[in-house]
Write a structure and sequence with these properties.
Blueprint lengths: L1 E10 L2 E11 L4 E6 L5 H8 L7 E6 L2 E3 L13 E4 L11 H6 L7 H14 L15 H13 L5 E5 L7 H18 L2 E6 L2 H7 L2 E6 L2 E6 L1 H5 L5 H19 L10
Helix pairs in contact: 3-4, 4-5
This protein binds adenosine-5'-diphosphate and magnesium ion.
GO molecular function: ATP binding; ATP hydrolysis activity
Organism: Arcicella aurantiaca
Protein name: Iron(III) transport system ATP-binding protein
């Protein structure tokens, strides 16, 4: 279980993350949804150890993690971030990109674990290809496979759907759910797209200007009546569904 308490960060004098507290259970997907500039990437960088916050605490399975220590190696062992641009090694195959995460293990274990990850992430058939020869969705799944190779307790995904077409998006959404459930990882998934969050998350946190406005189930977010901001956000997310259904001659009416 991942727990953030009162995390705050400023760039120069400008607040980017303001007093955020959240909990994510093992095997749970929490989507953080907010407009561009709301502080989502900053928050993930704090949780992954890439940015030292001004204040706040982070704990995993009730153990406080030192995020203030000036480490030479920034990576926190039990927490893995998949950055928006994947950062795969272009000259290595898909197999080798995953294998590189396991260099300190025996050859036998590496082979076994990489093969298991290739199957889990649905990329076994492309294991000998280079990143440039595969789709965006396959690259994203390779980056996820690499990140979970050492069985982290926490996985952080920054805009995993942003460069994908709709078929790849749909496939990746179901793969993410499968991976998180099977590996029992606590997952924070950041997106600017509420529709993706509705389709993949157990709970959704709405973020605005560095603050969390509401954390609840997709259904409760969908039915929110008090916050005008959230109501408008929900309405803009379902507009594409409306447009889609109109294309089939069915006009759907949502009371939002
Ligand atoms: P998001 O991922 O939601 O788009 P970010 O976390 O990237 O948001 O940014 C939050 C705010 O912090 C924005 O106003 C952004 O301009 C600012 N910001 C992000 N990174 C830096 C930085 N390295 N230096 C100064 N300001 C930054
Ligand atoms: Mg971002």
């Amino acid at each position: 279980m991942l727990k953030l308490e009162n995390i705050t960060h400023k760039y120069q004098e400008k607040s980017a993350v303001n007093d955020i507290s959240l909990e994510v259970q093992s095997g749970e997907i929490l989507a953080i949804v907010g407009e561009s500039g709301s502080g989502k990437t900053t928050l993930l960088n704090i949780v992954s150890g890439n940015i030292t916050p001004e204040s706040g605490t982070l704990s995993v399975d009730n153990e406080v993690i030192d995020i203030y220590f000036n480490r030479l190696i920034r990576d926190l062992p039990n927490i893995k971030l998949v950055p928006q641009d994947y950062r795969l090694k272009p000259d290595y195959s898909i197999y080798e990109n995953i294998d590189l995460a396991l260099t300190q293990y025996t050859h036998e274990y590496r082979r076994e674990r990489v093969n298991e990850l290739l199957v889990l992430c649905g990329i076994a058939e492309i294991k000998n290809k280079k990143p440039r020869e595969v789709s965006g969705g396959e690259k994203q799944r390779t980056a996820i496979a690499r990140s979970i190779a050492e069985e982290p307790l926490v996985l952080l995904l920054d805009e995993p759907f942003s460069n994908l077409d709709s078929i790849n998006r749909t496939h990746l959404r179901s793969k993410i759910v499968e991976i998180i459930r099977q590996e029992e990882i606590a997952c924070i998934l950041v997106t600017h797209d509420l529709l993706d969050a509705f389709l993949v998350a157990d709970r959704i946190a709405i973020m605005k200007k560095g603050e969390i406005l509401m954390v609840d189930t997709p259904l409760n977010i969908f039915q929110e009546t008090e916050s005008q901001y959230i109501k408008e956000f929900v309405s803009s997310a379902i507009q594409p569904i409306r447009d889609f259904m109109k294309g089939f001659g069915k006009d759907m009416n949502f009371d939002v």
